Amino acid sequence: MNRLPAALLLLVACGAPDAPEPEEKVCVAGVARSALDAVDRKITGAAAPYPADGTLRATDAELKASQAERRRVAWATVEKVLTNVPLAETPPSLDHVPATIPTWQTWYGFDDLRRVFHHLYEDLSPDERASRTPFSDQQLDDAFLWNVGSVHELPNWPKERYLEYLAAIDSATDVAGLGGLSRVGYSPAAARHLIASYPKVLACRDKGVPPAIADGPVEEVEIDRQAVEAASCQTQAVGSYAIGPGETLRARIEEGVGSKLDLVSADATCTSEAGEWCEIAGPAIVEVSATAGIDALHSVVTVHRAAARPEWADCLDGPFPIDGAIVKADYRRADLEIKLPTFVTSADAMKARLTGDVSWTVADGEADPGPADIYTLTLPTGPKYRLAALHIMTKELDHWLWITLWWSETPNEDFGADRPKSIAGLGGPWQSYKMCVTTAFNEEDPLPGGGFDTTYPSLASALSAVYAGQGAPTWCSNPYLEEGHGNAATNCIGCHQHGGTELRPEDILLLSDFGRPARRNNFPADYSWATTRGDDLGQLFADEELWWKAAQ
Q: From CA 179, how far away is CA 201, in angstroms rounded?
């Protein structure tokens, strides 16, 4: 049943500001966004948590060094995010389709965060608002619980209207439409962390963000201690030590009349006598050696690494929790005879794509897939949309796990060749999406094809086509989400490291390697753009604060 007539009649009768009408922001023909509003939140229920793997962090080095392991973990993560969960309220007309939606579609969007923050902030006293008092855990719990049923506090949503709206949901695409077209969705832990961080977000708006390379309290640790023996005037090598940006290598030889200690890097040298410290600043590989004086040397060399560690996420209340997850979706119209642009991601196509304009601007073709082949939803007002792409980022790793999915006419080739059967087992059209993943700025896998040469040769060839070499920047780019010159050669993490700053995406793309390498030792909003761009929660918090100041 099409819900358009009933929805329009109610809008005319009630003038509902919270009615589920799509608010299109068109950059490319057919791209749209519409919030999951209060009535749909009631039917959907509280957002489903992301089931994080608390042990994944221990495999960070393995993930960096193995494309195969990276993709295995990524597909498992995709499965968790796509797994269906039941609606909190079952529409009475749904006797032939499941009353479920994917986990990620239950997650909180901007409309939820706006309601929750306003509800919390208006309950603060004037003094608490003036001092930007943090919300308590109990206050946050209560506010997110209140949000689920907040529709019943709206005068334009009486019980009769709600029941009529619920009864009009009678198809799988209607059910999918309950999740709205929110471009960004936040898992419960991510949404809670952002709301709880409002004092820090506002403080950064006042004072600005830390510089890309910032200092903090100096932490010094001993990384080596070696006995040294050398005959008169002879030199003994102590070792080679790697230090990163913002780190300093410090060493000293404890005793030995006339002895000396040498520290040498590609750009600096330091020499000290016994009992004195010598140091070189990173990034560098430092060679340390000890030389005896006239007398033979019998001593000990101690090596320390010192670092001024800045706060990881100075513009949030610390880093996101490990069950923090964020998705970014790209929807395209599925009606009005609008077709979906398509992109070829074979090895030959990627080699061509990464030359010249290095962009996804020109599609390779177009298609008109139906609900069986692409995730499709119907909004309450009637329009139908397709999910062309989905970014997934999870905080199970310090620098996040970065995954992106895109629809393809040839889903079982190249970047979809290794898709596990469990994804198809989820039901729906998820077997039609390809995937790439990264976990670090630099690629540490020595195998261009990721080890897939015999098992999935088309995947190995495609990976080889985007492989810049071991130690070079990683690659992972979505044809539907990454716009502009250079964005076909990006890696997600390079852009997001600047989250929380005022840098524009187009400025980042002008940096070397299209912004992919690491350029910061601190991450103001822990890789999230939510506080300064996109949903711009910083502006939401500031507007609320300003309104209450004016109202006093």
A: 28
| Closest-CA residue to 522 (of 309, 344, 290) | 309
In tens, the pLDDT along 349-387 reads 999 999 989 999 999 999 999 999 999 999 988 999 999
SS3 278: strand
Residue 477, both tokens: 């780019």
Strand partners for 401: 394
Cα torsion through 502, 507, 512, 515, rounded to 10:
60
CATH code linked to domain 218-308 = 2.60.120.380
Q: Residues 388, 338: contact at Cβ < 8 Å?
A: no
451/473 Cα distance (integer angstroms): 19
Question: What's the angle, vertex CA 95, arms to CA 93 and CA 100, rounded to 5?
Answer: 90
Cβ–Cβ < 8 Å for 224, 286: no
Tokens 């495609």 sit at which residue? 462
CB atoms under 10 Å from CB of 469, counted, come to 10
The ranges assigned to domains in the chain are 4-210+315-524, 218-308
473: DSSP letter? B
* Of 74, 28, 11, 47, nearest in space to 382 by CA: 11
pLDDT tens digits, residue range 186-226?
999 999 999 999 999 999 999 999 999 888 888 888 988 88
Cα–Cα distance between 406 and 488 in angstroms, integer?
Answer: 13
